[in-house]
Design brief:
The structure holds two protein chains of two kinds. By secondary structure, chain A is mostly helical. Chain A is globular, with a radius of gyration of 25 Å. Chain A is built from 14 helices and two strands, in the order αααββααααααααααα. Chain A has a two-stranded antiparallel sheet. By secondary structure, chain B is mainly α. Chain B has a domain of about 170 residues: MetI-like (MetI-like fold), CATH 1.10.3720. In chain B, α2 crosses α12 and α8 runs antiparallel to α9. Classes of the chains: A mainly alpha, B mainly alpha.
C-alpha cells in the first residue's frame, strides 16, 4: 500500500504533462485553425462584402458604403423585428411545454425514463423538413384539426388575437410560431433535462418537510437550481429560431416572411450581395448583443 | 380530481410528447398513400408504391447518396478535430483557454443563415467554387463545436487516476491514451459523431448557400419538392430515418445503462 502510494505520487506522468506544454496546442491547432479560417474569417469577408459596391457581372470594389446599413434596416426592419418576436414567443412556448416534460423525465418517469428519453431524442434525428411538411397536412383545411378548431370556435379566437387572417390554421402567424416551437423543442428539453436530472429529490422533500407548498418549492428550489438548463435551452432555441426561414416559408404566408428568408433570397436570387451581407451582419450583431446581455443578466457564464 | 392534480406533470408531459411525435406518425402513415395530384397532403388510397420503388422519383436516391457521403465524411473529420480539442480542454491547463472556449461556443450561437452567407462571401472572394467540397467545409465547421461539447462532457467525468495507474504499470503516454483514455471516452466520442452526422445530414440552410446545381443534397431535394410536389418516396425515406434513429438511440441507451450497472 505504502509502496503504491509512493509510486503514484512519484509518478512521472504529472510533471511530464506539465513540461510538455506544446501538447495541448498541438491538439487544438487543426480544429481551431478550421474554425478561424471557415468561421471567423468569413465574418470579416461578410463585413467587407457589405461595404462594397458593384454587381455580379463586373465585380465588386470596396467603397466603404456605410449607407447600405441604413438602407437595409429601412427596407427590412419589419422582417427583422418579426423574426425576433416570433423567435421570442416560440422560445417562451418551448420553455412552457418543455419544462414539464423535462421535469417528468428527470424526476418522475421511473422505469419509463429511458423510453421517454428515446422518444424525445429520436425525432430530432429525423429530417426536420419532412416533419415540417407533415404539419402542412395536419393543419390543412380538410383535416379534423382545423374542423374541430372551427367547431370549438378556436379559429375565431385566433383570428381575434390576430394570429390567423381567416378561419384556416395553415399559412398564418399561428402556424409559423407553432412550427418554430415544435422544431426547436428538443433543444429546450435536453439542457433542461440535464440540469433537472442533477436536482437531488431530497431537496424537494426537505422543502416539503419545512412546510413549503408545492408552488413555493418550485419557486424557491426547483426553478433556481434548473436555471443553467433554462439559460442554455432558451439560447439554443432562440438563436436558430431567429435565423430560421423554413417554417416561415412552409407554414406561413407573405405577411410572415422572416429575416433569414430575405437574406437567403437577396444572396441567391436577387444577387444583391452588399445588401444581403449587411442584413446578415445586422442579424449577427443583434443576436450576439442579445446573447451577451442575457448571459450576463442570467449570471451563468460557464454554460458549456 | 385529486388524482388528476397529483399527476398533472405526467399529463402535461404526455401531451407534449404527443405534440412532438405526431408529425412522425403522419409521415409514416402518408408513406402508404397514393396521392391524387402532386401534393401528398390528403390521404387518398392505400399504396405500397413508395416502399416497393423507393428510388421511383427522379433524383431522390442520388440526393440521398450524396447526403450520406457528405454526412459520413463531415462527421468523421469533425469528430477527429473536435475530440482533439475536447482532450486539450479537458486534460490540460494552458494559456488562451477562455478564448478557445469562446471560439467553440460562437458557431453554436450564430444563426445558420449568417454562417452560410458569410462562408459564401469568403468563397466568392477566394474564388472557391460552390459544390460538394464547399458543403463539406461548411458542415465540418459547424459540427466541430457540437462534437467538442459532447466529448468534453465525457472526458470531464473520467477518473485521472486510471491514467496514472496505467503509467505506473509501465505504459507510455501513447499506450495509456490508446488503451485507457480512448476506450473510456468512446461513448462521448460516439455521441458526438452521431450528433455531427445528423446535423450534417439534415442541414438545409447552410448547404443551400454553398451548393451548386450538381450537388443536390437530400434536404435540398425535399425543399425543391415542397414547391413542385412532394413524391411519396420522401415520406418513406423519412420513416426509415425515424426508425433508424430510434434503433440507434435505443442501442445507445442500453449500452450506457449496462455500463452504469457495471460501474455500480
Amino acid at each position: 500500500m505504502a509502496e503504491t502510494a509512493v509510486l503514484s505520487t512519484g509518478s512521472a506522468v504529472a510533471p511530464s504533462h506539465r513540461r510538455r506544454t506544446w501538447v495541448p496546442y498541438a491538439l487544438l491547432l487543426p480544429g481551431l485553425l478550421w474554425l478561424v479560417v471557415f468561421f471567423v474569417l468569413p465574418m470579416l469577408t461578410l463585413g467587407s462584402q457589405s461595404l462594397q459596391e458593384g454587381n455580379v457581372d463586373d465585380g465588386y470594389a470596396f467603397t466603404g458604403n456605410v449607407a447600405i446599413y441604413a438602407e437595409a434596416l429601412g427596407r427590412y426592419w419589419p422582417q427583422m423585428l418579426r423574426s425576433l418576436l416570433y423567435a421570442g414567443v416560440a422560445t417562451l412556448l418551448a420553455l412552457l411545454l418543455g419544462y414539464p416534460l423535462a421535469y417528468f423525465i428527470a424526476q418522475k418517469a421511473g422505469r419509463w425514463k429511458n423510453i421517454v428519453l428515446v422518444l424525445v431524442i429520436a425525432p430530432f434525428f429525423t429530417s426536420f423538413l419532412i416533419r415540417t411538411l407533415a404539419w402542412r397536412t395536419i393543419l390543412s383545411d380538410d383535416w379534423f384539426v382545423t374542423q374541430w378548431a372551427r367547431t370549438l370556435r378556436v379559429t375565431d379566437l385566433l383570428q381575434w388575437v390576430g394570429l390567423t387572417a381567416n378561419d384556416s390554421l395553415l399559412s398564418s402567424k399561428f402556424a409559423v410560431i407553432m412550427g418554430l416551437t415544435y422544431n426547436f423543442l428538443p433543444f429546450m428539453i435536453l439542457p433542461l433535462y440535464a440540469s433537472l436530472e442533477r436536482l437531488d429529490p431530497r431537496l424537494l422533500e426537505a422543502a416539503g418537510d419545512l412546510y413549503a407548498s408545492p408552488r413555493e418549492t418550485f419557486r424557491r428550489v426547483t426553478w433556481p437550481l434548473s436555471l443553467p438548463g433554462v439559460v442554455a435551452g432558451t439560447l439554443l432555441t432562440f438563436i436558430p429560431a431567429a435565423g430560421d426561414f423554413i417554417n416561415a416559408r412552409l407554414l406561413g404566408n407573405t405577411q410572415t416572411t422572416m429575416i433569414g428568408s430575405v437574406i437567403d433570397s437577396q444572396f441567391l436570387r436577387v444577387l444583391d450581395y452588399p445588401l444581403a451581407a449587411a442584413l446578415s451582419f445586422i442579424l449577427l450583431i443583434v443576436i450576439v448583443t442579445m446573447v451577451a446581455v442575457y448571459v450576463r443578466k442570467a449570471g451563468t457564464e460557464e454554460l458549456l | 380530481m385529486a388524482w388528476i392534480r397529483r399527476h398533472l406533470v405526467a399529463f402535461a408531459a404526455f401531451a407534449v410528447l404527443i405534440y412532438m411525435l405526431v408529425p412522425n406518425v403522419i409521415v409514416a402513415a402518408f408513406s402508404f398513400n397514393n396521392p391524387r395530384g402532386k401534393y401528398n397532403y390528403v390521404f387518398n388510397e392505400f399504396s405500397t408504391e413508395a416502399w416497393t420503388s423507393p428510388c421511383g422519383a427522379q433524383g431522390i436516391c442520388e440526393s440521398l447518396g450524396l447526403s450520406l457521403r457528405i454526412g459520413v465524411t463531415a462527421s468523421l473529420v469533425a469528430t477527429v478535430l473536435g475530440t482533439m480539442i475536447a482532450f486539450a480542454l479537458g486534460r490540460y491547463r494552458f494559456r488562451g483557454r477562455s478564448a478557445t472556449n469562446l471560439l467553440i461556443f460562437m458557431p453554436m450561437a450564430t444563426p445558420e443563415v449568417v454562417m452560410g452567407s458569410s462562408l459564401l462571401t469568403l468563397f466568392l472572394m477566394l474564388g472557391v467554387p460552390s459544390g460538394t467540397g464547399a458543403i463539406l467545409i461548411a458542415h465540418i465547421m459547424f459540427c466541430v463545436s457540437f462534437v467538442v461539447v459532447a466529448v468534453k462532457a465525457r472526458v470531464a467525468t473520467l477518473d485521472p487516476r486510471l491514467e496514472e495507474a496505467a503509467a505506473d504499470l509501465g505504459a507510455n503516454p501513447f499506450q495509456t491514451f490508446l488503451r485507457v483514455t480512448l476506450p473510456l471516452a468512446a461513448p462521448g466520442i460516439a455521441a458526438g459523431a452521431l450528433l455531427a452526422f445528423s446535423l450534417s445530414f439534415d442541414d438545409y440552410i447552410i448547404t443551400n448557400f454553398n451548393a451548386s446545381p450538381s450537388s443536390i443534397t437530400f434536404p435540398m431535394y425535399v425543399w425543391g419538392a415542397s414547391a413542385r410536389g412532394v413524391p411519396v418516396q420522401v415520406y418513406a425515406i423519412g420513416t426509415v430515418m425515424f426508425l433508424v434513429a430510434l434503433v440507434v438511440v435505443i442501442i445507445g441507451q442500453v449500452l450506457s445503462s449496462r455500463r452504469n450497472r457495471q460501474v455500480a
